[in-house]
Each structure stands twice: as C-alpha cells, then as structure tokens.
Design brief:
By secondary structure, this protein is an alpha/beta fold. It is built from 16 helices and 20 strands. It is 27% helix and 16% strand. Helix 10 packs parallel to helix 15 and helix 11 packs antiparallel against helix 12. The chain is globular, with a radius of gyration of 24 Å.
Length: 577
Amino acid sequence: MPLDEGGPADSWWSEAVVYQIYPRSFADSNADGIGDLQGVVERLDHLSRLGVDVLWLSPVHPSPHDDNGYDISDYQDIDPLFGTLADFDRLLEAVHGRGMKLVMDLVVNHTSDEHPWFTASRDGGRQGSRRDWYIWRPARDGMEPGTPGAEPNNWESWFSGSAWTYDEAGGEYYLHTFSRKQPDLNWENPEVRQAVQAMMRWWLDRGVDGFRMDVINLVSKDPALPDGHVPEGSSYGDGSPSYVCGPRIHEYLAELHREVIAPCPRRLLTVGEMPGVTVEEARLFTDPARRELDIVFQFEHVGLDQGPGGKFDVRPLRLTDLKASLGRWQTGLGDTGWNSLYWNNHDQARVVSRFGDDSPAHRDRSAKLLATVLHLHRGTPYVYQGEELGMANAPFASIEDFRDIESLNHHRERTALGVDEEQILAGLRDRSRDNARTPMQWDATRHAGFTTGTPWIAVNPDHVHVNAEAQLADPDSVFHHYRRLIALRHTEPAVTHGDFHLLHPDHEQLYAFTRRDIASGTELLVLANFGGTDLTVELPGGWEDSETLIADLPAPAPLTASHTLRPWEAHVHRRTL
C-alpha cells in the first residue's frame, strides 16, 4: 500500500511497519561471505510479500568494522564490502519502486578513530583546528599521564574498560563511550553540529526518507565530566547521569529538526534510539509541537530479564514486569508522542529464545504469539530480519564462534577476573549480539542461501528446518502470520488509533488487553497464553462469539465466558461498539 494512502500524510509512519536490515548478514551477492547492497536488492520481493512499508538500513558506510559498521570513517560513501554509491542509488530506486521508503542509520555520537575528522583532531595537536571536534582532557591532577587511574574521570565504556584512551603523542586522553576506536564527537562545538547537518542534507538530497539516530540521546555531555558512582563489584564509575539525555539534548534535536528535517519538502521519519530514556522524557522528545523527533526507541522492556551484573547476568522474565513496562509506555505516550514497538534488532538476542520457547514443540506458536502481542500495541512496529521466520539464538560452542566486540571484551574481562569459562559462555550464548547477526536463513542449502562463499559468521544449523523458502510454501507459517498482522495494521483503524487498556495486570501467564477506537466504532480484544500449559481465563462481558481476526492456531474455539487457551495460543477478536 502506498504509504500516503489511507491516513494523514504528515504522520504516515503511524500506520507503517518498519523492517530492519543488517546488511552484513542479509544476502551476499558476490560470494565473499559478507552481505551487500546488491544482495538486498535481489531479496526485496521478500519484503514486498511481507507487506512492510519502510526499510531501515543499518550502516553501510566505510568503516574499519571494529563495531561492525557503527564506527564510521566516511559518512558520505559506501564501504566497498557492501558496494558503491551507484549500488545504493539502485537500491533506493528499487525500494521506492515497490512503494516502500528507506531510512538510514545515523551514527553521530561518535566516529571511527580513522575518520579524517578524528585524525585531524589527534594529529593537529592541542592548537589544531579540529582539536575540539572531539572530547580531549588531560590526566587527573597530580597523576602521571598514561598510568592506571590517571584517566580524566572514572567512567566505564559500554564495551568494558575505561571510557578514555591516552594519546601519547598529544599528551591527552579522548573520550569514547563505546570502543576505543569510536571517539565521541564534541557536540558543544557548533562546527560539529553543522558538519553533521550538512551530511544529513546530502543523504536527503539523494532521496532517503529519514534517519534512525543511533544512541542520539548520548550526544550532550555535562562539560564538567564528573566521576560516576562505582557500582559494587565494578572497577569503574557509571557516567550515564552525565550524558544520558544530557543538558543540551533537546536544544540539539530541535536544531537538527529546524535546520535539516523541516526544510525538506518530503515528510521524513526521524527515530531516536535512546537508551535510558524515561516515559516523561520520551513525551517531550516526540511531542509534535516541540519539533524534535517522531518516534523514540527505548530499552526498558529488554532490560527486564537482566540481573544486577548487567546484560550477561541472565534472569527469568516475569510476565507481570513486561506488562507493566509496556503498559506504562502505552499509557504515557497515549495522548502525546509515539512508541516504537520491537522485540529484536541487531543488538538483541532472538526473542523466540528469550521471551518465547524455541523448542520444536512450541517454537512456531510462541513466535506467532510474540508477534501478535507486539503488533497489536499502539505504535510503529519493527521487524528485524529473520524475526518473521522465528529465527532463534545460535548454538555457539566456544568463544571462537563469536565475532561481536562487546561479547569478546566481556569474555576477556570476566576471564581476567577468574570467572568460570562455562558461566561466561552461558551468558554470551543467551544474550550476545551475535545471536541477531547470524546470516538470514533463506533456504535449506549449505549456507542457508545467504552466500555461496564462506559466511563471516556461521549460519545457525537449524536453517534446514527454519527458512524463508519453506515458510513461503506453508500458509500456517510464522512468515504468513506476520504478513496477516501487518495487513491488519493497514486496514483496521483500531490497531493504529485505538486506546489501550491492560487486563489482568497481575496474572503471570496471561497477557490480555483491549484496543478501542471510538471513531470507527470498533474494539479489539487480544488474548495470549505466555506458557506451555493450558490456561482458562474469565472474559469481560460481551465478547462471546465475537469475530476472530488473527489466531496463531488453526480453527480457534469460539470465545466463551470461561475460555481455555492452549499452550502459547494467542488470538485477536473484534466487536462493534
């Protein structure tokens, strides 16, 4: 469906579904084992069949790939690994020709340390013209530069270790919130902001339809850069209070909108990835009257199954916590702002393994349930490549099987602390970002149809059973369930515009809610059994024998006042108000 049909053109994204492509792992057209732009072009019919509206393309710029492309060394070109600018233009034309839009990843909290901006900042010395394009500081007073503890503050990098690296030639440290090869840009410098804005205009002039802004709420730092609280058991401080939604973040985003987004004659989509953002802050960021962002991408719900030790300290998910979190965001952005709806992306382990049940008995059904619950919330849903097939976590045997810098650094750090190897690997198998980055499973051939060469990371061996070719041929597959959910969003106003009311908030196995749209006179009821046993539920009045719109099992039983859901069963019902 053309995106500007059926709804207000200025908020087309409220009725859209976004599909994220991680190009390195999507489709390889030249047998080098790495996905590329031509591979994406060759597989666009898959997206058309699914019915999605927007393609979000993870970074394809030149990069040393320390963080798999999120360390950019040239913002205005394409990495030869992925193709050329001409290939990108052909992709963009093909996307638009299918009635879809293309959104690019904008990574401007940091660059690569090989970006010309940084090399000029580093090599030009303290008086160089681009020194203050990055955040440089001397050693602590009274400390010998380059020695342990001499860093300007005690902040920990998100990828383990200190957030500061010493440059011996210049005699100062530079800040890197992530890898040491990802130095943070200094957004306090207006020249930096102007350079970012010029780069964004350049891509808009090529025809892209918006930006997903990577960790954009981290770009404003407290200039004092104070020490952070040191959590128990850690060697470093938590600097996030000084840069998560920092002091000038609203000013910077309003400026981006005013200088870049508003002047564009097309209605663009701007999505801000914002770790640590609160509901109250998100309302400000996405309030249309403030002209900052359209949608916020938040992380609260994907942190609910983590213990005090962080991401790799795995804890069972409590369904009541998940309902409370998602419900709070539904209510908090109910009258102002807009939600992102997602389970998966390139940074998250596969949801069917994480929140569902990836055993052969329940894998497909739990994948469908998870899709049903998510897509019936209010907001813009995101489908990450392979999610529509029910792709699961990979069976990594040893640390040699991993590729992700976050995982490798965590393994190195925990090993140095004497932690048991199997304990470390258990956390990595469950939560490593590499779970999201194994190649897309197109068919049952040796490398899943991803490449005829040797893939950069091993294909999940379950591809012989779980693949796009098999699911396209099966009308009851996970793929076709996603297709039906996406079609429902395009045709049922209550999915997009209806209010949200959570039912049974304290139930640890039932996820149930209603969506009511007064304008269309329609109400929807969503019922989902998050478990491997039958569940009998008492329905609110008036839903007996209502119309079934979507079900993850064939021929669901008609609704009764006391209704039994089978294991991992979910369905959606409609009635007229």
